[in-house]
Structure formats: structure tokens, C-alpha cells
Amino acid sequence: MTALLFGVLAGLLMGVGMYCAAQYSGWEWFSRRFQADADYVHATFEKMFWNVPITKCRLIVLAFPSFGLALATWATWGIQWYGTMLLALAVAAICWRLLRNGVDYIYTRYVRRFDEQLVDALVMASNALRVGMSLPQALDIVTKEMPQPVSQEFGLALKEHRMGKTLDDALSAMSDRLPSLDLAIVVNAVLILRETGGNLSETFDTIVYTITEREKVKDKIRTLTAQGKTQGVILISMPFVMAYLMNLVNPEYMEPLFTTLLGWLLLLFMCLMLLAGGLLIRKIITIDV
């Protein structure tokens, strides 16, 4: 209980210290990095149509390393004070570095949901075109009937079109804004057919078939590589789980690992080997389609 309270207090103090350092003009690098991370979080949230004020984005930037410091302090409570301090600061720095990765992961899931809904949106637009509607009318139906994020993205494109942009420019801006290969194919097909002429509904059906078949291949690859991912997670987490259990059973046996120079070198070597093994496993099981 004491370790937990001390960890929470250390995390709060670190958050306050980071905020004060960011406001101090003498720490120009830290202030620029802090503001850059807050702006990056704010811009990424805006891409997903999340109305998060910049002040809350700054709090998120403060929360990541503070939580890492509190967690590391609680987990390493009981070893030498300098060991706890070094590990806590290292974990806090890693959490701060992982902030952008976490935000990118959320945005990647957003784009993935868009790709999953794009097939249904194309089918709906193709059916609307077959009954004689224009392309803006078909996209308007997609905006009204489809869930987020497809409705948001196409809705923004239609709003830009109504505000004076051409439909081609609005769709091109949506393709530039959203890093989706499927959307880029759709937009390029629409732009080409609007210039050269052709049956847009049949083109949408062809794109739907292509996307569906590619997703089948991706699902098969994910199934075949699932075992490799599970083995990688187990192998990387096993040393930490075993060390924690052995420390609970016999703390004196594990004490030299955390209190001597040789122990720190062995821990560093272990982390480097686990990192190299994890990157190697990731490279093996990552297959681009």
C-alpha cells in the first residue's frame, strides 16, 4: 500500500514538474517537444472528428510518463532507491516516447474501420447510381445511412462540395486526408471515369470484388501467422513473469540481479536480446498483401 501511494505521488509530482518545465523558457527543447506532442495528439484526434481541446491534449501528454513513473515505482518498490529511481525514469521516458505510437494505433484502428465499412458504402452507392441518381446524391445516401467513420468522411467531402469545391477536388482531399489504399483506388477510379466516361456502378462492383478477395487473403494470412504472434508474446513475457514469481518466492536469491553491476548488465543484455528476438519474429510474420 505504501509503494502504491508513493508511486501515485511520484507520478503526480512528475506531471507537475513536466508542466512547469514546459512553461519555463529556459527549457526550450523540452517545451518544443511537449507542445509538438500535444499538437500531434490534437491534430490526430481532429482527423477522427474527436473534439478534444488542446488543453486536454496537454494533459494526455503529461499523463503518459506520469503513469509510467507511478507504475514503475510501485513495481520496483523494495530494491535499492537508486535502482527504483533509474527504472522509474526509464519507464517514464519510454511511455512518453510511446505516446505517439499509441495515438497512431488508435488512428490506424479508425482507418481500419473505415476500410471495413467502405465495401458496404460502395454497394449502396452503386445501387443508388443504378436507379438514376447522380454521384453526389449517391454519396449523400451513404452519408445518411452508413455509420461512422464512413458517414463522417463522405459527409465532410459533400460539405466541401456544397461550399464551392468541385466534387473531384473534395474526393481528392478526402483521399489525401485518409491513408487508405482502398479509398485511393475508389477516388482514382471516380476521377478517371468522370473525365473519360463509363459505367460508374459497374466500376464500384469491380472494386468491391477486388477489395473482398484481398480481405480474404489477408484473413488467411492472419490465421496462419496467429501462432507465431502468440509464441512471440509468450517467449518475450516469460522472463519477466518468471523473474517476478522467483522474486516473490525467494527475494534474497534475486536481489543480486537488481543491486549489483553484473546484474544490471545481465538485465540490459536480456532486454536487448528480447528486443532483437521480438523484431525478428515481427519481420517473419508480417506479410504485406
Descriptive overview:
By secondary structure, the chain is mostly helical. The chain is built from 11 helices and no strands. Helix 2 (28-47) crosses helix 3 (54-75), helix 2 runs parallel beside helix 4 (81-130) and helix 4 (81-130) crosses helix 5 (135-145). The protein has helices at residues 2-23, 28-47, 54-75, 81-130, 135-145, 150-162, 167-177, 181-196, 200-249, 251-259, 261-285.
Q: What are the key terms here?
A:
mainly alpha, 86% helix, 11 helices, 289 residues
Brief overview:
With 289 residues, the protein is an all-alpha fold. It has 11 helices and no strands.
Radius of gyration: 26 Å
Number of E strands? 0
How would a crystallographer describe the biggest sheet?
A: none
With helices defined by DSSP (H or I, 4 residues minimum), what is the helix count? 11
Q: Looking at the structure, what is the overall shape?
A: elongated
Beta-strand share of residues: under 5%
* Helix percentage range: over 70%
Helix/strand class: mainly alpha
Straight-line N-to-C gap: 50 Å
List segments where confidence is low: pLDDT < 50 over at least 5 consecutive residues: none
List SSEs in N-to-C order: HHHHHHHHHHH
